[in-house]
Specification:
This protein has helices at 192-195, 239-246, and strands at 6-7, 11-14, 34-36, 43-47, 58-62, 66-71, 76-80, 87-89, 102-108, 115-117, 129-134, 137-144, 147-154, 163-170, 178-184, 186-189, 199-204, 209-214, 223-227. It is mainly beta and 252 residues long.
């Protein structure tokens, strides 16, 4: 195994319904998009296809060695040690567009032609998307096809790891079979134009992890991996294969 490893995105499935905010206007200093909780420790924003803030709201989750920037649309990027010189995933210098480089898709296998994202700016449906920013975490809540979804994102105080905890609650009486897909645009260096085509992938079935290694050699940390609490059934390093086979919309 490579000695220099960054854990990027372990995903756990926990079945739990989080208390939802029923009336946004009751939030403190509500401005039409969001407001503060009673104790002032959280800020919640609601958006949908037709109503969203004019610009992205960002939250920096970081320790001394590792960090990620997340927006209200689940955009942003992840880095290690240096946010400019050692990006793990791509950063888009677009002040008017919130282009994500990490996207989580869900698909109910009963409806194979329907896939949606847990963020609101790639393949959103017609329902509301809620995000709550707190000190050191961000929580995204959404409901579609009678499935309540919550994604909590945080970076531990010391470890070089980004964690996405996904909580799902099925409100139907029938059992359901879901497919979760995690898309990311890796950089493993400063400039994605330099490392594109030089990132090698390897799947460790026993360890249930997909390793990405920068063989170009210009990154500070040359190896990262993505893992999950659920068994990884497939992976690809080809954008064209991903789009053509699964018909998923993606950021770029």
């Amino acid at each position: 195994m490579p000695s220099n490893i960054l854990i990027l995105c372990p995903i756990w499935f926990i079945y739990l319904e989080r208390e939802r905010i029923e009336n946004m206007e009751n939030l403190k200093f509500f401005n039409g998009y969001g407001g503060f909780s009673d104790d002032g420790k959280e800020y919640t924003i609601k958006s949908n296809k037709s109503e969203r803030p004019p610009h992205a709201w960002s939250n920096v989750l970081a320790n001394e060695k590792f960090g990620t920037i997340v927006t209200n649309n689940m955009g942003g990027f992840t880095y290690s040690k240096n946010s400019r010189l050692n990006r793990i995933t791509a950063w888009a210098n677009q002040p008017s567009d919130d282009i994500p480089s990490e996207i989580i898709y869900l698909r109910d296998l009963k409806y194979p032609k329907i896939a949606w994202t847990l963020n609101s700016n790639v393949a959103p449906d017609n329902q509301d998307y809620m995000v709550t920013f707190g000190f050191g975490y961000a929580k995204y809540t959404h409901t579609s096809l009678e499935l309540i979804q919550e994604t909590e994102v945080f970076v531990p105080k010391e470890d070089r790891v980004k964690i996405n905890i996904i909580r799902l609650k099925n409100t139907l009486s029938e059992r359901r079979k879901l497919k979760l897909i995690y898309y990311l645009k890796p950089v493993l260096g400063e400039d994605e134009t330099k490392t594109s085509g030089y990132i090698d992938l390897e799947f460790d079935k026993e360890g249930n992890a997909v390793f990405a290694r920068n063989i170009y050699g210009e990154g500070l940390s040359k190896t990262v991996y993505v893992s999950s609490s659920e068994n990884i059934s497939s992976y690809t390093g080809s954008n064209l294969s991903f789009i053509r086979k699964w018909k998923y919309k993606y950021a770029r």
